[in-house]
Amino acid sequence: MRRLRYSINVTLDGCCHHEAGLPPDEESMRYWTAEMERPDALLFGRVTYEMMESAWRKPATGTWPDWMNAWQIPFAETIDRAKKYVVSSTLSGVDWNADLVRGDLGQAVQRLKQESGEGLWVGGVTLPLALADLGLIDEYEFLVQPVLAGHGPTLLAGLRERVQLELVDRHEFRSGAVALRYRSTRITT
């Protein structure tokens, strides 16, 4: 059975907007590249899928854009080639090595988790909240940025039930950010 890990950048005050924290640097991009190489597949909601595709899909020319630094390319290549599942009721189709997930979210994700493999990864805001409410997230990974945003979407806002976590790993960055990985100790029913 594959484990599902939720990973996201978050500010000290809980903001999880993708532009609220520190800009990516070489160290954080190496970290995220290694994290994206671990799972068998990535699970996205529509908004995250479209955002990631617009930033990290390799152009038809086969050449990465000029704005991309050399140290960003390994991350871009990892995301570009990864298997993706997209949860959406509004998209009529997806590509970019992706399959559309429709129907009952809990049943669909449970089927994905029951497949053999190294794991699944989910990012974003809305989809992880729904998955947390269903008790389907096995691990939570927060890259806590040393920033107070003061506004923006907050981490798991509206969670219906408390989720107890156990710290299993931590990694400190030169920037002052800290990656914290937790295992859910919540008993799912």
UniProtKB/TrEMBL annotation:
<dbReference type="InterPro" id="IPR002734">
    <property type="entry name" value="RibDG_C"/>
</dbReference>
<feature type="domain" description="Bacterial bifunctional deaminase-reductase C-terminal">
    <location>
        <begin position="5"/>
        <end position="176"/>
    </location>
</feature>
<protein>
    <submittedName>
        <fullName>Dihydrofolate reductase family protein</fullName>
    </submittedName>
</protein>
<dbReference type="InterPro" id="IPR050765">
    <property type="entry name" value="Riboflavin_Biosynth_HTPR"/>
</dbReference>
<dbReference type="Pfam" id="PF01872">
    <property type="entry name" value="RibD_C"/>
</dbReference>
<dbReference type="InterPro" id="IPR024072">
    <property type="entry name" value="DHFR-like_dom_sf"/>
</dbReference>
